[in-house]
Amino acid sequence: MTQDYTYGLLSAINAIIIFAFFSLNAIGDGYWVLLIGAPIASFFCSVLLWNIGMKKLKLNTTSKIAIIGTITGLLIPYVTLIITNIGMNICYLTTENCTGSLNQPPASIFETILFGYGYAGWFLILYYGWVLIPASVGVGFLTTYINKKS
Description:
Radius of gyration: 16 Å
Number of strands: 0
Number of helices: 5
Number of domains: 1
Order of helices and strands: HHHHH
Strand content: under 5%
Shape: elongated
Low-confidence stretches: none
Largest sheet: none
């Protein structure tokens, strides 16, 4: 397996663990959908950023991994919100379920893209971003360690 897919797979597992802890400890219903969107977002962000970062950055490997992991950790909540919002809108349009806690329809895709990072930023600051960013960097170092062994 190539390094980008190894990083993507390990990052997806990392996201499942962190978002599972978040959804189990959150107050209210509906946070389980993050367990669907988070590994998908994490995998695609990780693979894309690993490919771009390793090819374009003119730094040593340690610096590349630190930058890639930090940016990946910052993007995962935002892309997770977009993916889960797309799923919620499809669910709402087809079944009229998947409403919010006050029975309101989910935000439109445009609203999520436009305002989503404000929500994701609060997630990063207040909840588990302080775990997600260092964990993404750690997964990058684990990826290089695994690929050196094989």
